[in-house]
């Protein structure tokens, strides 16, 4: 198999037929020996029915139907685990990323000798809020993580077989895909592309915050180090303050009532304590989930003529 094209489906019915037409045309310009793997991530619309109809018409289409919605990154890892091509092209099916990027990435891969060619946005799509939050995310992640990721990268990427084989060896249950892409290594080359804006997204603010927390706690122990130094700083400051008040009271007879200050201090230290315990709790919950060794996705059915043969 020369080429595998993988994409996930979630509320993708409006784009799927056009995506198939365009990506098939691009793949045929490179090779006739290719497959298209579509992973239905518990989509609530008729994406699965459309994908199965494509499978019935084209033997190169393979459909993996997950038992429920497991999340974008886990669905992607499932698609990559089933790819058989010497090259694997990963792309979203909603047409925000143009299927024609395949040819551009293919030419770059051949000329650079890289194992991965991936896209980065020339300017982040969306409104002011999305651009600002996206910029803050990448800056904070690079600051806190031991494995910084490229700013404004997109899903679309063309990968060698050996890179994909190494990537799917990661067994994380809490997956942050950009981090896994980075720590897998190999020679990776960015290509500046334009990403379209379809006007709606399934990533609302709460989900973005959740992704940020998961990404940091999955790829960095720096928040725990921060807690240690914060505790040391509070201990030092409180010791100096206590010494100052003790000396002032014993030698100068100056006792301060200070009830408002005391209450504020209690609330401040109480809030810091809860905050630090929360961070520790997140790490403990991740350890708990990783040790259970549950599969990150469960497949209901695979539509594949090769398996049926």
How many helix segments?
11
CATH topology of the largest domain: Spore Coat Polysaccharide Biosynthesis Protein SpsA, Chain A
Q: How many strand elements?
A: 8
Structural class: alpha/beta
The count of domains is 2
Task: Give the CA-CA distance, first to last residue.
Answer: 17 Å
CATH C-level class of the largest domain: Alpha Beta
Seen as an oligomer or otherwise, the chain set is: single chain
Helix-residue proportion: 40-55%
Low-pLDDT segments: none
Q: Biggest sheet: strands side by side, in what order? A: 7-5-6-4-1-2-3-8
Overall description:
With 309 residues, the protein is α/β, with parallel strands linked by helices. The protein folds into 2 domains: 3-219 and 295-308, Spore Coat Polysaccharide Biosynthesis Protein SpsA, Chain A (Alpha-Beta Complex); 222-292. Helices cover 53% and strands 16% of the residues. It has an 8-stranded mixed sheet, with helices on both faces. The protein is elongated and about 90 Å long. The model has no long low-confidence stretch (mean pLDDT 81).
Descriptive tags:
Spore Coat Polysaccharide Biosynthesis Protein SpsA, Chain A; 8-stranded mixed sheet; alpha/beta; 2 domains; 309 residues
Can I get a quick summary?
With 309 residues, the protein is of the alpha/beta class. Helix content is 53%, strand content 16%. The chain has an eight-stranded mixed beta sheet, sandwiched between helices.
């Amino acid at each position: 198999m020369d080429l595998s094209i993988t994409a996930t489906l979630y509320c993708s019915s409006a784009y799927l037929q056009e995506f198939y037409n365009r990506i098939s045309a691009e793949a045929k310009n490179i090779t006739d020996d290719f497959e298209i793997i579509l992973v239905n991530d518990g989509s609530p619309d008729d994406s699965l029915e459309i994908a199965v109809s494509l499978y019935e018409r084209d033997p190169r289409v393979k459909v993996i139907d997950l038992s429920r919605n497991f999340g974008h990154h886990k669905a992607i890892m499932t698609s990559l685990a089933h790819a058989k091509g010497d090259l694997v092209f990963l792309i979203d099916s909603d047409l925000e990323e143009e299927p024609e990027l395949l040819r551009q990435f293919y030419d770059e891969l051949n000329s650079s000798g890289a194992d991965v060619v991936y896209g980065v946005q020339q300017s982040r799509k969306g409104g002011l809020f999305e651009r600002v939050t996206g910029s803050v995310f990448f800056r904070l992640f690079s600051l806190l993580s031991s494995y910084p990721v490229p700013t404004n990268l997109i899903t679309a990427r063309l990968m060698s077989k050996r890179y994909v084989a190494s990537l799917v060896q990661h067994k994380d249950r809490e997956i942050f895909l950009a981090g896994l892409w980075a720590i897998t290594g190999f020679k990776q080359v960015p290509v500046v592309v334009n990403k379209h804006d379809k006007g709606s997204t399934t990533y609302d603010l709460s989900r973005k915050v959740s992704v940020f927390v998961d990404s940091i706690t999955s790829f960095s122990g720096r928040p725990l180090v921060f807690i240690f130094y914060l505790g040391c700083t509070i201990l030092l400051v409180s010791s100096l303050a206590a010494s100052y008040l003790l000396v002032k009271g014993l030698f100068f007879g100056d006792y301060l009532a200070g009830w408002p200050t005391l209450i504020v201090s209690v609330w401040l230290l109480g809030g810091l304590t809860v905050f630090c315990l929360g961070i520790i709790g997140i790490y403990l919950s991740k350890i708990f989930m990783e040790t259970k060794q549950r599969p990150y996705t469960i497949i209901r059915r695979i539509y594949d003529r090769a398996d049926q043969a």
